[in-house]
Amino acid sequence: MIILNLIENEAKRVFLSYGIPIPKGRLIADSKQVADAAANLRAPYMVKAQVPTGGRGKAGGIIPALTIEQANEAVSRLLGSQIKGLPVKQVLIEEKLPIKNELYIGFTVDRSNRSYVCLSSAVGGVEIEETANKTPEAVVKTTVDPQLGMRSFHTLNIAKQLGYSGIQLLDLSNTILKAYRACIESDAETAEINPLVETQSGTFVAADARMVVDDNAMFRHTEYLEKQTEGLTGQEALAKKNNLAYVKLDGDIGVMGNGAGLVMATIDLLKLFGGKPADFLDVGGGANTEAIKVATEIVLADPDVKVVMVNILGGITRCDEVARGAVEALEDAEVKKPLVVRLVGTNQREGQKILEDAQVSVLKSMEETAKKAVELAAGENS
């Protein structure tokens, strides 16, 4: 599954559509646009790299600028650079807000309670995990009833716990309720405003925002369809095109299996024997020869991969089709890498014979296969 991570400007536009104020700003992709953008904004400015990650300020991705000249220097410095390994292709120039206080408002899925949870804090502008670890009492946690949802009496209580009263209590309560609706109606797994700035005049403005949308909901959000492949590697894009669940990891042993649980168990087993998995790749149930071939090609194409472990428990997935797909991928691969396979289930004998004829190692158990993969990877590294 690939998660759709909206960048700051995109998330802000979502919140703005629900009536939450955002700073006046302009999105640019070329340093030549700075003068035109700044001419319609009042100094001082905030220049922000638009990449789908948090902690940009600490990583040097947010730069204050007092003048147009400084803004131009900041844009030139950010465009084409990398923030946390992500390329900066766009920069947001905004009017700097007159800040009185910074808050945090966020919604995320609480899987243990099968519901959303609202996290809020009077200490914004930093990572909420850091606040929760150092001063857990500073974070207000409100579980959202899945049937009732979040109502105004909930958000009024949150605003009160954050220390507000009077008109500001009502204003902040309405802002939290709007943020909740934006999260729910966007099918977001995470939606946060950090910081939600209380200005000197007492209003609340979303100074920064982030939203993560589950791509299983794309049929309801067709405006994001093209964005799904933005920023993906060639392997990730190919996996998505073929409905394969692929996640790149930092090891050197490629992992393929049918079923998320089986792949996770395979990864755990490799780590138990001292191996380092290079990916998570779930071909799903009923994968045919072509799907297996593509999946194998994706793993083989990873330059970090030294050996590939294939773990198949065939039910509706036929072992002979798995074997044919893997062998075809090996034959077409520019760089040959060893495969070790555990193949059990429907048409098991036929599949094993196909692999053995192609001189691919077929072992009987997960443990044997994992140990063999770790040994081969260690041999390649020595």
Describe the protein in words.
The mean pLDDT is 91. A hairpin with a 4-residue loop joins strand 8 and strand 9. The strands form 5 sheets. Strands 1, 8, 9, 10, 11, 12 and 13 form a 7-stranded antiparallel β-sheet that branches. A 4-stranded antiparallel β-sheet has the order 2-7-3-4. It starts with a strand and ends with a helix. With 382 residues, the chain is an alpha+beta fold. The radius of gyration is 25 Å and the shape is elongated. Helices cover 36% and strands 27% of the residues.
What would the keywords be for this entry?
382 residues; alpha+beta; D-amino Acid Aminotransferase, Chain A, domain 1; Dna Ligase, domain 1; 4-stranded antiparallel sheet; 19 strands; elongated
CATH homologous superfamily title of the largest domain: ATP-grasp fold, B domain
Strand content: 25-35%
**What is the correct CATH architecture of the largest domain?**
2-Layer Sandwich
The largest pleated sheet is described as: 7 strands, antiparallel
Number of domains: 3
What is the overall number of helices?
12
Q: What is the molecular shape?
A: elongated
Overall radius of gyration: 25 Å
